[in-house]
Write a structure and sequence with these properties.
The complex is a heterodimer. By secondary structure, chain A is an alpha/beta fold. Chain A contains 14 helices and 20 strands. Chain A is 31% helix and 18% strand. In chain A, the strands form 5 sheets. In chain A, strands 12-11-10-7-6-5-3-13 form an 8-stranded mixed sheet. In chain A, strands 16-15-14-19-20 form a 5-stranded mixed sheet. In chain A, strands 4-8-9 form a 3-stranded antiparallel sheet, covered by helices on one side. In chain A, strand 8 and strand 9 form a beta hairpin. Chain A is globular and about 70 Å long. Classes of the chains: A alpha/beta, B mainly beta.
Chain lengths: 523, 73
């Protein structure tokens, strides 16, 4: 790995979406300069400026900054098994199927075990900057365990950002405590702002020593969610709102949710597809409630642009995930393994490593800017298309087609005088290549997952999948192996546009794609 | 009577444990159990038994008829 930027002292200054100023030269962080609205950090690059203190909070948080998620890692510790509400997409006999791997019981941790694990991971993976408590139940339905973990970590690893995830029911009671432990990122799952919709999602809640059913349950939940969100905003704590898109139940309603949470100061809105396999045994799984297609998901996300910033890089990771988003190294850090490790928490070593990561990230910016400038010099036609990318981090096209367990999806939007690239999502796939041999029966499912893309950019691809992709009308591209993603995207696009202009190929729009069911599973 | 937890259905989530007004619930081998001699069925404390109301899995906290009905002092 090479690091091209020279210093880490660049002054980072957010403007518009997220912009970065380097030594007097203004480059744009996530949004492309003069871009037409969309930006790769998932924010609608509007006039909503981001003050420097907010940028400081999000710049190396992989969940809050799309760009950071290529470079920084997070981990969750499963110290919070209890929950105080019932959702129809969750079956507590297993882990929550939307936010953790279904069917596999996570290793429940005590706060002491969790702290030990965090210190071990942070020493092993120095780009791990964020620790979250996201269940497998509700962080605030287990306040003792959650806050004891935070208390110890604040003392022993003060450079790690702390965050938690909650359904919001208990949130107003704990806002002061959240502030006390410097938790500056809170995620609230909000699926509705209308009890009539909520009734179809939440059969009951447990609140104030009583179980509530019917419309009363979502009504109380809604009021507590809004109150909690307002209280967090008043204290300057950043909030991310997670919403599960349930076709036919809250798909259009999520636009209203987006408006309501934006109004109350939510920083980021993350609209995720429902996961509802019958074998998970959830109510929705058993009633045959389907999840959205890729296009349906993108439509609702696009309709919410201009509201709260949208997150599109969520991997719906499980409550004990470890590593970069889209990667899970939790197998390397089971409690038995952690107990054996001798951990010396070296904050200086972590800082030095993160400075290198920051330099690499800066290099990705610069490469993107250069590519955008080069593209703009060419005469363009109106064209908007999706491209899939195989990457294993550092913002580069650096993964073999057969080794990809997911593809990142970028939208290239070219008009006559402007061109933008925006990260719009990711697609999980089953590994094509296992033990050095291609699994041909996996290929159709991979094609389905990226069927809405015009090309797939990879570091390498075998002959058989290459032909299959071509037959499906998806162009396999190895030419930009190990280049930065945006650079490769725009170089490919320029070539594609030129070939179309010469009449060598015909530009056609592509169909819809399937979202693979099941939370992220490590290969 | 007292309440009891069906161990085979218990997910070990611990939702019931802190709700018990009598500290009658303890963890054993990853699941929870109610000490019948401590259980008052929440009579005198709450309108409904808290372990039953908090438990996310149906029919997991059930009445144990082998104990006599609790009588408030």
């Amino acid at each position: 790995m090479t690091f091209t930027a020279e210093s880490n002292t660049s002054r980072l200054k957010p403007l518009g979406g997220i912009r970065v100023e380097v030594a007097g030269q203004q480059t744009s962080g996530c949004s492309t300069s003069g871009g037409a609205g969309k930006s790769s950090c998932g924010s609608s690059a509007g006039a909503n400026d981001m003050p420097p203190e907010i940028w400081e909070k999000v710049k190396n948080h992989p969940c809050y900054s799309e760009e950071a998620h290529h470079h920084y890692a997070r981990m969750h510790v499963a110290v919070a098994p209890a929950c105080n509400i019932q959702c129809n997409y969750c079956n507590r006999k297993y882990d929550c199927s939307n936010e953790s791997r279904p069917g596999v019981v996570s290793q429940k941790l005590t706060p002491d075990q969790a702290v030990k694990k965090v210190l071990a991971v942070a020493s092993e993976i120095p780009q791990m900057t964020v620790l979250g408590i996201a269940g497998p139940g509700d962080a605030l339905a287990n306040p003792g365990k959650t806050f004891e973990t935070f208390r110890q970590l604040q003392e022993q690893a003060p450079d790690i950002k702390l965050c938690l995830s909650t359904n919001g029911l208990a949130l107003p009671d704990y806002v002061d405590e959240i502030a006390r432990y410097n938790v500056d990122h809170v995620t609230i799952t909000i699926n509705m702002v209308d009890a009539a919709v909520g009734e179809k999602i939440y059969p009951w809640i447990f609140y104030n020593h009583k179980r509530y059913h019917g419309r009363e349950a979502p009504q109380i939940l809604h009021e507590r969610q809004m109150l909690g969100l307002e209280m967090l905003t008043a204290r300057g704590i950043l909030t991310k709102i997670n919403s599960v898109l349930i076709p036919g139940i809250n798909d259009q309603h999520l636009i209203e949710v987006n408006r309501a949470v934006k109004q109350r100061g939510a920083f980021l809105h993350n609209i995720m597809p429902l996961i509802s396999e019958a074998e998970h045994g959830t109510v929705f799984g058993l009633t045959g409630q389907r999840g959205p297609s890729a296009q349906e998901l993108k439509e609702v996300q696009d309709a919410c642009m201009g509201g709260a910033n949208l997150m599109r890089h969520c991997r719906q990771c499980r409550a004990d995930a470890v590593g970069l988003l889209g990667e899970d190294r939790s197998d390397e850090f089971t409690i038995a393994q952690v107990e054996q490790m001798e951990v010396v928490y070296d904050i200086e070593k972590r800082r030095a490593y993160q400075e290198k990561v920051e330099a690499e990230r800066q290099a990705q910016h610069d490469a993107k800017q250069a590519a955008v400038v080069a593209s703009q010099a060419q005469p363009g036609v109106d064209m908007k298309l999706l491209v899939a990318v195989a990457t294993q981090g550092q913002g580069r096209i650096n993964q073999h087609f057969g080794h990809a367990s997911e593809f990142q999806i970028y939208e290239i939007n070219a008009s006559t005088d402007n061109i933008t690239t925006a990260f719009v999502g990711h697609r999980r796939v089953d590994l094509y290549c296992q033990g050095g041999y291609g699994e041909d029966e996996q290929l159709p499912s991979i094609v389905n997952a990226i069927n809405d893309c015009h090309a797939v950019l990879v570091s390498k691809i075998g002959a058989c999948p290459r032909d299959e992709l071509k037959a499906a009308g998806i162009e396999p591209v190895e030419q930009y192996a190990h280049e930065f993603i945006e650079h490769g995207l725009l170089c490919w696009f320029n070539d594609y546009r030129a070939r179309a202009a010469r009449g060598e190929i015909e530009h056609r729009s592509r169909g819809d794609a399937q979202i693979r069911q099941g939370a992220y599973m490590a290969a | 009577m007292a309440y009891k937890i069906v161990a085979s259905s218990c997910t070990g989530c611990s939702a019931c444990e802190p709700e018990c007004p009598n500290q009658a619930i303890i963890e054993k081998n990853g699941t929870f159990l109610i000490k019948p001699e401590k259980c008052t069925e929440c009579i005198g404390h709450f309108d409904e038994p808290q372990c039953v109301a908090a438990c996310p899995v149906d029919k997991t906290v059930i009445i144990d008829t082998s104990y006599p009905r609790y009588v408030a002092a």
